[in-house]
Write the structure tokens for this entry.
Amino acid sequence: MSLKDSKIIVIKIGSSLLVDNDRKIKRKWLLSFAKDIQKLKNMNKKVIIVSSGAIALGCIKMNFNKKNLKLDKSQAIASIGQIELMNLLTETFSNYNLNISQILLTLEDTEERRRSLNAKRTLGNLFDLDFIPIVNENDTIATSEIKYGDNDRLASRVAQISNADSLVLLSDVDGLFTKNPKLSKDAKLIKKVENLNEDLKNLNFKGVNELGSGGMNTKIEAAKICYLSGCNMIIANGLHFNPIDRILKQNNYTIFVSKVSKLDARKKWIISSISPKGELIIDEGAKKALKNGKSLLAAGIKKVNGKFNKGDHIKILDKFNKEFARGLCSFSSSEVEKILGHQSKEIKKILGYITKSEVVHKDDMVEI
């Protein structure tokens, strides 16, 4: 599915597209970007923008250097910069009669199913009201333990939650190359990636700048989430004016083509979790049962790693400690430790109360 065929499109813009190396706001670029969004809207596309820039704009206003900021100070700077960012976007988009709204998310908002469904509902209502959602990580309250760390993966989770057809990551390069194009003249653009493991196994990129966070590696992580969510992902050069129009007219970018996904919305959400809370190691018999579409029972569990609560995301590993599946556990880690290896009919006697017989129900599990 091309961008022209996509009904819902998520576009991520980074700090380096909003602010130049001299710490000046790139107003002309932003105006051209707004014109692109108007074009998409005229094509009856639903658009979500994931924008970095709050901390960068806050640093400009307060004349601070982002590299020297500690976490607590960066949260305060983000609070100041968030208003600067939204004022800038509101002013710019109003030139094309585009209405925008703001959604601030943390990691937990997408990891917890109830919150992720609330976010999806809000996005849908904003579409109905003909507003463009501007999404950003809530840097004012996020800590180093729960932050996405970059907005590439945040954008991929927003794409997954909204059931987007395409995610566009606007970068400072044309796409994914065989080598780092800033260091190697013989680097070649990879225009299409259809098999993540095979096509990318020999590539290794790193790259950061002062105002942004994350390089090509974070984009690959984002692609993995999209890949399993039925969403195509494009990495394209955002430094040019009208970057979206360039994508529509040219073929000078990298597209990650998602495999056809038969996962329902619940299983998409399970498999794309960024931070599973624990692990269950199972025996060969249990693995065979899961392959045949059965639920995971206590009898087949050999070991528990980590601490987690009922309903949390967990990994399911085979006897070689290789990840085999992911799911939502019906028991806490302390409960599983008590019942592992036992028959389902013994659970009530061991725990002292009636509960489910399946540790991970087949409907709450996705094979990797």
